[in-house]
Amino acid sequence: MSNCVSVVLGQDxxxxxxxxxxxxxxxxxxxxxxxxxxxPSGYTxxxxxxxxxxxxxxxxxxxxxxxxxxxxxxxxxxLRITDLxxxxxxxxxxxxxxxxxxxxxxGDPGVTxxxxxxxxKVTTTWWSTTLTCSTTCTLTGNxxxxxxxxxxxxxxxxxxxxxxxKTEDSFYCAVKGINSPxxxxxxxxxxxxxxxxxxxxxxxxxxxxSSDANPPVDKYTWYKKNVTSPKASGQSYSxxxxxxxxxxxxxxxxxxxxxxxxxxxxxxxxxxxxTSVLTAAxxxxxxxxxxxxxLPCFMWFRRSTGGSDVTADTQSVHPDPNxxxxxxxxxxxxxxxxxxxxxxxANVRDSSSDTVPQIDxxxxxxxxxxxxxxxxx
Length: 377
Fold this sequence. Notes:
Keywords: Membrane, Transmembrane, Transmembrane helix. By secondary structure, the chain is mainly beta. The chain has one helix and 30 strands. Among the domains are: 5-116, Immunoglobulin-like, CATH 2.60.40; 119-181, Immunoglobulins (Immunoglobulin-like, Sandwich), CATH 2.60.40.10; 186-271, Immunoglobulins (Immunoglobulin-like), CATH 2.60.40.10. Strand 5 (45-52) and strand 6 form a beta hairpin.
């Protein structure tokens, strides 16, 4: 803090003295503002308070539980604000009121309070990276800075820290127990594919790279496994009118000022062009209808050309009425429909040309039997 500053010295002994004109402190910390006042003899002070914008801080609901007043025997008045927010940045003034005729006196100008948070700025060269613990105002009191690497102290006192190689470690600085957000290279780098699953040849697919990093990723590069040169740059990579040669494993590289990180490779499977379900259904229906219409025609054609489905045609050969009464009846095969099983039949008798062979036989005993004539007498 600076030396005491007499802000106001009014006539006849009216005055308010602040111990400093400005304070810069950290978000989340606490701050004490001090002042003392004087007034002429013969007056009695009845009310004292700190305010911003003519509002008593103790009456502001935003300050409930965070603001306290204190007065010591030396007439020093202290305002304490805890759990500071950036919205607490303002000019704070002290006022006192006397009982005689309600006279009031304000120390103006007051104390300017600036609340800032800690940030780490990253500066890179081709051979090193420098981290600087940064604030929007110069912290009051020349505080000590402490640097942490993966939660372990690596340096104290200096607001800057330098390292000489890319790393996946995380870093943060601290002042008076208040930590900055950590800075780190990309992690949890992954690839998502839309649409997911098997990709039909001729369609399109989009790959998107995501990664957690602070500072944020400033460069994305896309690669295909076993291919040296990059395929594309940018957080998303689209492949249109995809062909079978596009199948394979793809991955992205995410990079910020701290380090770089590759994702796990994502397989892209390309399938051949597929007929739609509707087209397939129509094709099957047409095939069945054609089959139903064609089958009867095919059966009729087979019958008309003597196919195997035609039954044997037979005709009866009736005996010649003039022939011997003991002549057998023969059935002749229709030569148009005969099959090889009947080719060996050579004894089919034709009534016009064949003669039944005569067989010489000895007379039967029965032929010599003659019944004697009956005697009519």
